[in-house]
């Protein structure tokens, strides 16, 4: 490329959500000539490119249709993205058409050729004012039919002039909408907006618009959308964690030791089913590892088994608004298909219904297994997780303590003892739970040769005792008999075992205090005389010898506690699995699938918000003090399969409450997030470059975990919701909205309690938020059909509380795009003074699909009147109608025979 074009490209490159296009230009026609003097033209411009090496005309894009004028000013321009091969020698051909007839239902149009012109990119770049005025001529190059102005465009420049000449909406194909500009000022420094790391986004699409404000000034809008590699990265990380967790659980079941035949057969059955399910996760991970190509899952792939963990159509969308008098603003939204298990289907409903039904059935399980409530099961998993986390830490700190003793280092010895004491106290505290005691009793009675003498109700929990006390069903009585109390079992033995850990630690502490005290007194007695190296070595050896047996005793006591606690908690998990095979594992798989899709979107949203708010100290304070609000806008109906999708989505979003984020400094060029944890608790480590990391508050830099507050508000808006409201049931939607309103109020109360009043921008006052919440409450209580006011209020509250916005429908296509574009135009109207007469035009411009497949590649641009040659399907309609009824088919056959007979006669 020439030096001139390189300078031009460098000037345009700046940080945004995705790379900025290399070249953009707009077009305006003047004095167009028509065959009939009185006829008003309806024109559009088709843009074609001729590459220097190929000399082949390639159709690139088109503008919108501007109706009723001979001097059309097009809002749609041309953008060449960074990866597009454009050079100074590249030729651009502009062909102007007059639209005779435009179908409102299809993209087919009847058009006639007016004129064309050609220029090179170098001509435009090197022009004095970066503007060309070209003559439009007929196909033979003779007659002049008007002129066309081409203007190089740079986002961020101020533009003078009145917007009165804009007469229609603008539409674009694949790249960008561009506006004319009259200023020659560069954009360096003006448009340097927060961005994601370039490796996180793929295939960016950019559109630009200009719209008039209420005071007749121009505002400029850049709308950007991109895929993200997190669509696949997060699910793969999550599946890998599931595999490790399930393998560890299977091993814990095998380590239960010898069991009575009944329990042993149950264990074998559970392990067999778990191994089978484990292979499903492993196969899925292997298939995802082979995936290449697109960074998102399209809607047509939502039923594919190998991609069921991947979110549908996950995209990042940003609107950047540049106003003449207001500060530039960014509005981000994540668009994604509703998290749901499409491959498994919705014949029996979604997770919300399935989990409730499963839990009710599990309560009625007979004597073959022991019922533990979901809370107790979750507690058992937490205890096992604490064991796996704390045991190696305690062992490591104990070794450090001995190492400090061998080096005769008092300061190091004190620090090592402090860390050992803290971790050991956490370890001991983890087992102060009635569940561990009752599980040990149940496991004891499951051993072979156990003589049952005195049946008693197990002490799972006070709640469980109340449940059993009020049960009259025979199966419940049998289940009580299945956990007897053995007369020879010493219930206090467990207390002594885990108490020995604390006693052993106290012995270590006492010995360290004694050694340090003796060392201090020895130093005072020796005065100024420095001890020799030999004396230090002897003292270190003496310290080590005195501490070593105490540390070994501590490790032994801890090992005994770990063995017993692991076995008892594994026995609880055995009951959970045995009571519901295979439904339990299938529900776990379904929940993992839905959660994986939801988590991928959440990670995207958090990273975008973090990058955007790095310079906002109020937001960063809110992030570590209160947490982040994550608001999902659902557009699913409560009819048929979509009701099941909504149930899946509600559970998946609710499960995001168990996710916490941690921001760390990146140690390499790989900035992808790291996921750790287990199904009940995940930590997402977001990596930032050193310069960005330094901008964070000290609390976040020190590793404070950041809480998430996900809320979902759903309003069905399609024709299926009409059926649900008239003939079906909307209780599901009403319950979800009411439950999440309470969660939103909880977040608001935390926010007002912990944050200073001046943390929000001046126009976002507390009273305003309180009024919006009350209005939202009233709208949720009102029995109004398709009450989209709920959506608007929830979105407004989310933005005012610095939250992350999501918009979801079944596939994140039609309904989602309609909602996002309406929201964007409403923001322009309410926050940026969009001229009221241009609201609909701006909306049509953002929703336009005129150039997305509107023109056929087989059309010759200069053959006069052309029509879309797409085959019509109207001839197939009668056959389809005949298939509806056998009676109609018979009538059709009789009439056909009659016509044939009449013809031959």
Automatic annotation (TrEMBL):
It comes from the Eukaryota. The keyword tRNA-binding does not apply. Gene3D superfamilies: 6.10.250.230, C2 domain (2.60.40.150). GO terms for molecular function: phosphatidylinositol-3,4-bisphosphate 4-phosphatase activity. InterPro entries: C2_dom, C2_domain_sf, INPP4. The chain crosses the membrane at residues 876-902. Residues 2-134 form the C2 domain. Residues 455-488 are annotated as: Disordered. It catalyses: 1D-myo-inositol 3,4-bisphosphate + H2O = 1D-myo-inositol 3-phosphate + phosphate. Pathway: Signal transduction; phosphatidylinositol signaling pathway. Keywords: Hydrolase, Lipid metabolism, Membrane, Transmembrane, Transmembrane helix. One of its GO terms (cellular component) is cytoplasm. Belongs to the inositol 3,4-bisphosphate 4-phosphatase family. PANTHER family: AGAP000124-PA, INOSITOL POLYPHOSPHATE 4-PHOSPHATASE TYPE II. This is phosphatidylinositol-3,4-bisphosphate 4-phosphatase. It comes from Meleagris gallopavo (Wild turkey).
């Amino acid at each position: 490329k020439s030096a001139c074009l390189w300078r031009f490209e460098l000037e345009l490159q700046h940080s945004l959500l995705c790379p900025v296009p290399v070249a953009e230009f707009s077009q305006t026609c003047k004095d167009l000539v028509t065959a009939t003097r009185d006829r008003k033209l309806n024109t559009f411009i088709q843009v074609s490119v001729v590459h220097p090496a190929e000399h082949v005309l390639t159709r690139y894009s088109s503008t919108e249709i501007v109706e009723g004028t001979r001097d059309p000013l097009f809002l749609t321009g041309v953008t060449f993205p960074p990866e597009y091969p454009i050079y100074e020698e590249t030729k651009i051909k502009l062909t102007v058409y007059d639209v005779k007839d435009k179908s409102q239902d299809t993209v087919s149009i009847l058009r006639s050729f007016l004129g064309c012109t050609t220029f090179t990119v170098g001509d435009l770049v090197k022009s004095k004012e970066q503007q060309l005025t070209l003559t439009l001529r007929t196909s033979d190059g003779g007659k002049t039919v008007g002129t066309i102005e081409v203007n190089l465009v740079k986002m961020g420049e101020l533009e003078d002039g009145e917007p009165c000449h804009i007469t229609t909406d603008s539409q674009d194909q694949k790249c960008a909408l561009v506006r004319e500009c009259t200023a020659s000022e560069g954009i360096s420094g003006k448009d340097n907006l927060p961005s994601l790391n370039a490796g996180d986004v793929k295939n960016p699409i950019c559109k630009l618009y200009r719209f008039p404000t209420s005071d007749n000034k121009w505002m400029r809008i850049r709308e950007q959308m991109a895929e993200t590699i997190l669509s696949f990265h997060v699910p793969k990380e999550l599946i890998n964690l599931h595999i490790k967790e399930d393998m560890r659980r299977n091993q814990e079941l095998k380590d239960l030791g010898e069991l009575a035949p009944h329990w042993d057969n149950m264990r074998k059955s559970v392990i067999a089913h778990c191994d089978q399910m484990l292979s499903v996760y492993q196969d899925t991970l292997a298939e995802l590892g082979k995936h290449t190509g697109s960074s998102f899952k399209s809607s047509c792939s939502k039923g594919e088994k190998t991609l069921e963990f991947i979110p549908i159509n996950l995209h990042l969308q940003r609107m950047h608004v540049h106003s003449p008098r207001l500060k530039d603003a960014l509005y981000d939204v994540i668009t994604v298909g509703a998290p749901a298990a499409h491959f498994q289907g919705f014949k029996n409903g979604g997770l919300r219904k399935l989990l409730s039904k499963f839990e009710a059935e599990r309560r009625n399980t007979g004597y073959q297994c022991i019922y533990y409530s979901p809370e107790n099961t979750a507690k058992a998993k937490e205890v096992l997780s604490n064991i796996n986390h704390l045991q190696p830490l305690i062992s490591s700190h104990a070794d450090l303590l001995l190492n400090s003793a061998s080096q005769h280092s008092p300061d190091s010895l004190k620090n090592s003892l402090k860390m050992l004491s803290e971790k050991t106290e956490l370890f001991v505290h983890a087992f102060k739970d009635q569940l561990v005691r009752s599980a040990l009793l149940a496991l004891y009675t499951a051993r072979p040769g156990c003589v049952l003498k005195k049946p008693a109700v197990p002490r799972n929990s006070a709640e469980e005792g109340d449940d059993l006390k009020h049960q009259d069903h025979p199966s419940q009585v049998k289940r009580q008999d299945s956990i007897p109390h053995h007369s020879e079992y010493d219930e206090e033995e467990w207390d002594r075992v885990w108490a020995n850990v604390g006693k052993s630690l106290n012995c270590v502490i006492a010995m360290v205090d004694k050694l340090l005290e003796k060392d201090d007194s020895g130093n005072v007695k020796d005065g100024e005389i420095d001890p020799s190296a030999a004396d230090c070595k002897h003292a270190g050896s003496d310290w080590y010898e005195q501490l070593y047996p105490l540390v070994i005793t501590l490790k032994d006591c801890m090992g005994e506690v770990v063995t017993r606690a692991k076995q008892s908690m594994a026995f609880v998990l055995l009951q959970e699995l045995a009571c519901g095979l295979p439904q339990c594992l299938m529900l776990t798989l379904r929940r993992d699938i839905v959660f994986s899709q939801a988590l991928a979107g959440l990670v995207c949203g958090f990273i975008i918000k973090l990058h955007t708010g790095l310079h906002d100290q109020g937001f960063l304070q809110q992030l570590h003090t209160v947490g982040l609000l994550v608001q999902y806008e659902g557009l699913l109906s409560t009819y048929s399969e979509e009701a099941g999708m909504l149930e899946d989505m509600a559970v998946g979003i609710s499960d995001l409450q168990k996710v916490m984020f941690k921001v760390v400094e990146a140690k390499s060029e790989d900035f992808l997030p790291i996921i750790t944890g287990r199904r009940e608790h995940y930590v997402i480590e977001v990596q930032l470059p050193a310069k960005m990391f330094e901008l964070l508050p000290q609390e976040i830099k020190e590793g404070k975990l950041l809480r998430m507050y996900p809320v979902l508000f759903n309003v069905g808006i399609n024709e299926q919701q009409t059926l649900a409201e008239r003939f079906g049931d909307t209780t599901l939607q009403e319950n979800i909205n009411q439950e999440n309103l309470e969660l939103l109020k909880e977040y608001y109360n935390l926010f007002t309690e912990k944050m200073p009043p001046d943390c929000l921008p001046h126009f976002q006052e507390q009273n305003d938020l309180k009024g919006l919440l009350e209005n939202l409450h009233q709208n949720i209580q009102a029995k109004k059909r398709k009450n989209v006011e709920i959506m608007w209020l929830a979105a407004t509250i989310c933005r005012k509380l610095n939250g992350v916005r999501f918009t979801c429908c079944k596939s994140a296509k039609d309904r989602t795009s309609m909602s996002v574009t309406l929201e964007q135009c409403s923001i322009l109207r309410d926050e940026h003074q969009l001229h009221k007469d241009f609201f609909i035009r701006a909306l049509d411009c953002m929703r336009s699909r005129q150039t997305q497949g509107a023109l056929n590649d087989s059309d010759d641009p200069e053959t006069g009147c052309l029509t879309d040659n797409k085959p019509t399907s109207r001839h197939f309609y009668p056959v389809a109608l005949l298939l509806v009824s056998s009676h109609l088919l018979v009538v059709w056959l009789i009439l056909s025979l009659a016509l044939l007979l009449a013809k031959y006669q």
